[in-house]
Design goal:
The protein has 89 residues and is mainly α. The chain has four helices and two strands; from the N terminus they run αββααα.
Length: 89
C-alpha cells in the first residue's frame, strides 16, 4: 500500500471523527455534525470507483465508519434532549 493510497481513507476517518465533535457554547454542549455518515460513505465509494483506494481499503474504512455510527447512536440514545432542554438558559 502506497502513502498516496492511504490519504483518502485516512481523510475520511479524520473527517468523520471531527464532524461529530461536541462544542461548548456558554456552558451548553451541542452535538455538531456537518457531514453525514451517508455522505462519507458516498465519498468513500466514489474514491473506490475512481481507483484512489483498493477494495481492501474501502472495506476497512467503511467498517470503521459503520462502527462509529453504532457508537454515536448509543450515545445519542442515552443522552437525548428535546430542543427546549438544549435552549434553556
Amino acid at each position: 500500500m502506497t502513502h498516496r493510497s492511504l490519504i483518502t481513507p485516512l481523510a475520511c476517518v479524520a473527517l468523520l471523527s471531527v464532524s461529530g465533535c461536541m462544542i461548548g457554547n456558554s456552558g451548553k454542549i451541542v452535538l455538531s455534525r456537518h457531514i453525514s455518515v451517508g455522505q462519507e460513505l458516498i465519498d468513500l465509494k466514489e474514491a473506490l470507483d475512481r481507483g484512489a483506494i483498493t477494495d481492501e481499503e474501502y472495506l476497512e474504512v467503511k467498517g470503521k465508519l459503520l462502527e462509529l455510527v453504532d457508537s454515536i447512536e448509543v450515545v445519542d440514545a442515552v443522552n437525548t434532549a428535546t430542543p427546549d432542554q438544549i435552549n434553556e438558559d
